[in-house]
Amino acid sequence: MIRTDESNFLLRMRNPAGLLRTICCCLFALAAVCGGTKSARAVTPDSPEVKALVTRATKFLEQTTHEQVGGKVLIAIALKQNGRDISHPKIKEALDECLKYATTGNYGDENYNLALAIIFLCEMEDSAQRPQVQKMLTDLLGRQKPNGSWSYTQNTTGDTSQTQYAVLALWSAARHGYDVPLPAIEGVLNWLIRTQDPSGGWGYQGNDPGPGGNRIAQSPLTLSLGAAALGSIYILTDLLQLPEGLIAPPKGPAVKKLPPALQEIQDKRANQGRNGKRVPASVDFARLKKTMDDGKNFVQKVFTAEIADWTHYAYYAYERYESFREIAEGDFPPEPKWYTDLYKSLNSSVEGDGYWNSSETPASGTAFSVLVLSRSTRKVIKRIEALGEGILLGGMGLPPNTADLKERNGKLVDSPLSGTVDELLGILEDDSNPELARLAESNQVVALDPDITRRAGQINRLRAMVSAGAYETRLVAVRSLAKVRDLDNVPALLYALSDPDIRIVREADRGLRFNSRKLLGVVELDTPTKETLAELRARWRAWFLSIRPDAELLD
User: Fold this and answer.
1) Cβ(203)–Cβ(220) under 8 Å?
2) Which residues have C-beta within 8 Å of that of residue 469, sequence separation ≥ 6?
3) Residues in the chain with pLDDT values less than 70
4) What DSSP designation does 212 have?
5) 316: helix, coil or strand?
6) Of 132, 187, 215, 472, which residue is most buried, by most CB within 10 angstroms?
7) Where is the signal peptide (predicted)?
8) Closest Cα partner for 373 from 305, 297, 300?
9) Cα–Cα distance for residue pair 390/387, rounded to 1 Å
């Protein structure tokens, strides 16, 4: 759209001189072009105008509330992702309501509040709240329909809208270390495949042709429901090990040159899938691919920011779809057009007090809008990925052998494993050993042999484990090396600073502080970011090369 304020100003000017008229015409054209460029400029969450709009909206959210627990959660998440501390009254209000809600067990006949409460408590990442999350997760799994979907308790048909939030809750729980059964994931994925309209869209109450059936008509076919269903499919595939190239063209893995000591251990759990993901047994991969391809075509065809009903709810469904699609396909456009379109619509429709109102209440509509403008889903995905494989596989749960629990400072902890050094190293080298997770959770280290010859061999075995497939092995190995003041261990510790699990990075940093005698470290790791982690690696690398210029380090 071309701005006309400059052109109107010029047209109001009158001068008989032909030259001046010519100049005015030129200025008019220039103003129109410049104005149009400004209006069409793409925006991102970091754009000043977007930040200003989010600031207005969050101020409104700080002064409002919602009567349902799900609405309180939406407000809290919107505020938490925009700089508010967990001590903020609205975040505390949502937390208190979620804990109370979990305790009552009165979850009603729909699944929105239950799913959002699970998501919020998972994001709070407080191990003290795991019993409440587990209680609600068990209930949510029990509500899954025989056809694989979620809906009102009295309904037999699946509800696409409710299913999307149940799926998001399952993903959040699984990514925070809770057990989500594979049949539950496969069941809902197959339901979404079966209930796709021939056009590629999805309806509200899914018309299910049954296993093996052809697609049948669904209604209504809206962008909101299409994004909800397709987004859920992308979410579910993030939990599964799929054939390479199914979602995106295969990319050759980056070949990393490892120091000789790190090349000995290979991942022995390949049959479990990469990164601990499970291989589905009952999903037709060819049909899944066609479902996703047709769904993308449908969503792209019907996309519009002009949505009359449940506008902001629909926007959030679309942002969620795009975020998971980006991750799955490795496609991260810096300034996506859809985001600019949604921003323009929100900017033009915001009320004076910084809120939005459509079919939703002002509180929920505004919370949805802030989540969209903040690229909330992308933030969550990136944050969980930054925690690394360890939190995804191990989480914060109880150790598997509860018979060996004991109390320490009022908390239950696992008893240390006993055995010789070689026996403990054997556990670490065997990814299938049931004691491996217990060894990692216990904060135990391998106490090396006092005999110099045997000790050297044990250290070499630990160094080799720093690149192991199992995060538990890497964690204990790095933790043990960090307790030994030996500069020959530094290359392995430097390598561990690039581990995807932040806990392993912290252990490596402690070891480098111990070896360097720089007890305060080189970078503050309280709130690690991509930038601070890169700085951490660079500084420790520079320190080591300053004392060992000829050291062989990983590129």
Assistant:
1) yes
2) 265, 266, 267, 268, 269, 431
3) 1-40, 249-276, 384-421, 438, 441-445, 449, 452, 469, 526-527, 554-555
4) T
5) helix
6) 472
7) 1-31
8) 305
9) 7
Strand partners, 196: 202
Q: What is the pLDDT of residue 460?
A: 80
Note the pLDDT of residue 201. 98
Q: Which amino acid is at 410?
A: G
What's the CA gap between 301 and 402, in Å, rounded? 54
Cα dihedral sign, 243-249-252-254: negative
The whole-number pLDDT of residue 315 equals 97
Strand partners, 159: 205
Q: DSSP 3-state assignment of 497? A: coil
d(CA 554, CA 531): 19
Q: How far apart are CA 533 and CA 539, in angstroms?
A: 10
The continuous run of DSSP H or E covering 411 comes out as strand 411-414
Tell me the C-alpha distance between 512 and 259, whole Å: 18
Helical pair 337-349 and 48-62, crossing angle rounded to 10 deg:
50
CA dihedral 25, 30, 32, 36 (to 10 degrees): 170
Q: Answer for the pair 357, 62: CB distance below 8 angstroms, yes or no.
A: no
**Residue labelled with tokens 């054997």:** 426
Which residues are bridge partners to 407 per DSSP? 412
Give the pairing type, strands 405-408 and 205-206. unpaired
Any idea which fold 48-248+274-392 has? Glycosyltransferase (1.50.10)
What are the residues whose beta carbons fall under 8 Å from the beta carbon of 231, sequence distance 6 or more?
164, 317, 318, 320, 321, 324, 325
Helix/strand/coil for 499: coil
Q: Report domain extents, the chain.
A: 5-40, 48-248+274-392, 398-547
Q: Considering all CA atoms of the chain, what is the largest pairwise distance in Å, rounded to the nearest integer?
A: 103
